[in-house]
Amino acid sequence: MIFGSTKLNITPVKVSEIPPEGELLQAGRELIKASQEWKQTKVFCKGLVQGITAPKASDDDEPWFGRVSVHDSTSISFDELWFGLGTKKPEHESKFVHNIDGIKLLKQNSDQAEIWNIHYKFSPPISNRTFTVLQVIELDTSSPKRSGLIVSIPIDTSPDAELHKQEIHGVRGRYVSVERIQELEDGKIEWRMVTSSIPGGSIPSFVVHTSLPGQIANDVPLFLKWYESDKEYFKQGTSKPESEVQS
């Protein structure tokens, strides 16, 4: 999908051709806004997650799917959700996405943009997969209702020999995604995610398109299960330093 001059799809971007961070974030905001008009599909995880899907656009390589879940701030706070999803993202994902068995920071472009290689291990006959993405992350506290945005786009490291050799081997997959954590007027918190992906290899497209909505929906209860099992870690991660409290 094209927003302004920025195209969000599964075509990998060379490191030397990465769009400015501001453009990627703006494209992510516009995509999330557009997703509010997408078609609702199945409800997953005992009513916790609403699936959505985008109308096919002529510039899309693969379909877009998404999910929306709303969380009571008495069960998990915005700070805790953002800590788990918007900080140390690949490391935290490996805590609840159990197929992830390797992560590697390839390059830090700025305080809010990093290139990561993420490796997924699967049982035979499915081969292991490797994904390399740029993740651009922004926490917006300028309005009374805070929001956080994570934009991930696929990266092609092949022109950069030093980065390329650091990647963990596996069948090369690609994904693009945007996640938003948003405080709502009623005090609740919305977690919205949209993605388009291709696993690479010989897995038929219809299998991917059929299974992906359920897979991304299942990440929500898996994350909440991790949160419930390690609340002390989240408490430490969201507590303000003493110097900040005193200021």
UniProtKB/TrEMBL annotation:
Gene3D superfamilies: 3.30.530.20
Every DUF3074 domain range: 64-226
Protein name: DUF3074 domain-containing protein
InterPro entries in UniProt: DUF3074, START-like_dom_sf
Domain of life the protein comes from: Eukaryota
